[in-house]
Amino acid sequence: MNGLGQVAFLQDVPKAIVVTDGEEVAVVADVGTEFGDGTKIDNMLRPAPDIDGVGRAAYFASIAALDGPICDDRILLSGTNPPLLLASGGGDVEDCAFIGVEGEIPIASNDAGSAAFSGDFSTPGGSVDAV
């Protein structure tokens, strides 16, 4: 919960990221949310989202590939349309900054629009686990 009394959570059916203050409910992203490059969110199975002091939710999402490999795991921040991309990675794509995210470790966000998360990061010597 943030200082405004809002909470963010992952809704199961339909799969969506929801922000509420107990009275008003807003869906900030859902399966099918599209990006300018034609990709779209196809899954949200990661840990619970986090909400910052101004009501933006940071969350994990998987992205549907169009014509080939992409960095298909993303950490996104609501508040813009489409959501702001904070980090991307996943799969066997060499240009991705991280290879995967830890499914049991939640994301944490701050009012500056940054997020902390755990993942396997790609380095010149291979991959390393990091937070």
Textual characterization of the structure:
- The structure is a single chain.
- The protein is an all-beta fold and about 130 residues long.
- Helix content is about 0%, strand content about 45%.
- The protein contains no helices and 13 strands.
- It has strands at about 5-10, 15-20, 25-30, 40-45, 50, 55-65, 75, 85-90, 100, 110, 115, 120-125, 125-130.
- Strands 4, 5, 6, 7 and 8 form a five-stranded antiparallel β-sheet that branches. A three-stranded antiparallel β-sheet has the order 1-2-3, with no helix packed on it.
- A hairpin with an 8-residue loop joins strand 6 and strand 7 (about 75).
- The two termini are about 20 Å apart.
- The model is unreliable at about 125-130 (pLDDT under 50).
Q: Cα-atom Rg, whole angstroms?
A: 15 Å
Count of helical stretches: 0
* End-to-end gap: 22 Å
Overall SS class: mainly beta
Helix content: under 10%
> H/E series, N to C?
EEEEEEEEEEEEE
Largest beta-sheet details: 5 strands, antiparallel
Would you count the extended β strands for me? Answer: 13
Mean pLDDT: 78
Share of β-strand residues: over 45%
* Bulk shape: globular
- The residue ranges in which pLDDT falls below 50 over 5 or more consecutive positions are 123-131
List keywords for this structure.
131 residues; mainly beta; 5-stranded antiparallel beta sheet; 3-stranded antiparallel beta sheet; 0% helix
